[in-house]
Design goal:
This protein is about 70% helix and about 0% strand. It is mainly α and about 425 residues long.
Length: about 425
């Protein structure tokens, strides 16, 4: 590693460690509000409590949600209605296992569980691959705590770390040609189906078709478990439940706070919870982006798994209907993978390197998120995401050109 590369490596590490210290301090200062039920874990705990009590059919019922939340968060002064549970029913089974404890203890167990997964992610992704950074791999888990995404997941009690861990396992399985296992793992991640489904479609277009049987089996199991929790009628009503919440005001769903195309478009068409004009643009844009990313990935070949994985993950985020700051934790998987590959990536032009820095700097440094939050337009963080997508697309396109040239030379040379 050159001196300049070592300097850049430690610069990033020290900057992220400094932000991690600040984030951990803020978390410590927020611990009493977290224990009182002020943040998102309240809706997970509510669903888990209802499932644990055998009242799973009511996990989407407004009155039942409010009744349970008054048992543990009655001191919350900013809430006049229940925090709604949005995930598919099967995830309530996970939270039913920790709903046996009082809310503060359950939150502590959930946080410790997520921290364990977070510290495991680098070792899952980099397993059997060369580590190109000058600092040790175990340090990367602390660096993730310096990102705004990691901070918000821990503060809110969200499930983004669990999703990132499952994607890390899927990457490792794809990297070791265990495609069926990768499909099964991605099926377990369907509690955020809006991010998983575009990724799986891109993966299928990229030629990793053996993932689909495992994914289908896993998805069917999750579907059956959901039916067990809420019943078939409750399961069939779930899409309507989500649609009704999306069209409602006062339930905490604000498009301008989401880091996706839907949020970005609110800058031009308004901030209504259900702006109809956006829906004419989103489906064709999402379909085109998913197909294009899959085609680029296929042409580049499996040797550029990290870039293809990263592009498909970003496309899943920016084209999804719901994507918040904590969902960007998914990006730690391809970023780790790209820093643990041999020095054989295709040559890059200066523009690609400049774009990479322009995309990564805002995404990794916490102050940019606070700035967008002050503007009440966190959707502007979609822009660096799109820039990073362009970088990965350029790399895959160049890799595809080189791969095609090698194939043509091989065909011309013939056997022997």
């Amino acid at each position: 590693m050159s001196s300049a590369a070592k300097f850049r490596s430690w610069f990033w590490a020290i900057a992220l460690l400094a932000m991690a210290v600040g984030n951990l301090f803020t978390l410590w200062e927020s611990r009493f509000a977290m224990e009182k039920g002020y943040f998102d874990f309240a809706n997970f705990y509510t669903a888990g409590t209802l499932a644990h009590r055998g009242e799973g059919a009511e996990i989407y019922d407004r009155d039942a949600q409010w009744r349970v939340q008054q048992e543990f968060s009655s001191e919350v002064t900013t809430r006049r209605a229940p925090m709604r549970f949005l995930r598919p029913p099967f995830e309530a089974l996970l939270f039913s296992a920790i709903a046996i404890w009082p809310y503060p203890k359950a939150l502590l167990v959930w946080t410790c569980f997520k921290l364990t997964l977070l510290f495991a992610i680098p070792f899952v992704v980099v397993r059997g691959r060369p580590w190109r950074e000058d600092f040790p791999i175990w340090l990367t888990s602390f660096l993730v705590l310096g990102t705004f995404s990691g901070f918000m997941d821990l503060l809110l009690g969200q499930d983004a770390i669990l999703l990132a861990f499952l994607f890390a396992v899927a990457f490792w399985q794809l990297d070791t040609a265990r495609d069926t296992g990768a499909g099964v793992t991605l099926g377990l991640a369907l509690f955020k189906f809006q991010l998983v489904l575009p990724f799986v479609i891109a993966l299928w277009i990229a030629g990793r078709k053996r993932t689909f049987p495992g994914f289908a089996i896993s998805a069917l199991v999750m579907f059956a478990l959901s039916a067990v929790v809420v019943g078939w009628r409750g399961l069939l009503r779930y899409p309507g439940y989500l649609l009704a919440l999306n069209r409602s005001t006062g339930v905490g769903i604000f498009p301008q706070l989401q880091m996706n195309l839907r949020g970005l478009l609110t800058l031009f068409v308004g901030r209504a919870p259900y702006p109809g004009r956006i829906h004419w643009l989103l489906p064709p844009a999402a379909m085109a982006a998913v197909i294009y990313s899959g085609i680029l990935w296929r042409k580049a070949g499996n040797h550029f798994l990290a870039e293809g994985f990263g592009l498909a993950a970003i496309v899943g985020i920016v084209t999804s209907y719901y994507a918040y700051s904590y969902d960007l934790l998914l990006l730690i998987v391809p970023l780790l993978a790209m820093r643990s590959r041999p020095y054989d990536s295709p040559k890059e032009d200066r523009l690609t390197r400049v774009l990479e820095m322009a995309g990564l700097l805002p995404l990794l440094f916490t102050p940019t998120y606070w700035f967008s939050k002050e503007l009440h337009n966190q959707c502007i963080m979609t822009i660096p995401l799109l820039v990073l997508a362009v970088v990965l697309a350029r790399r895959l396109r160049l890799a595809g050109v080189e791969t095609s040239a090698e194939r043509r030379r091989s065909m011309q040379d013939g056997p022997g």
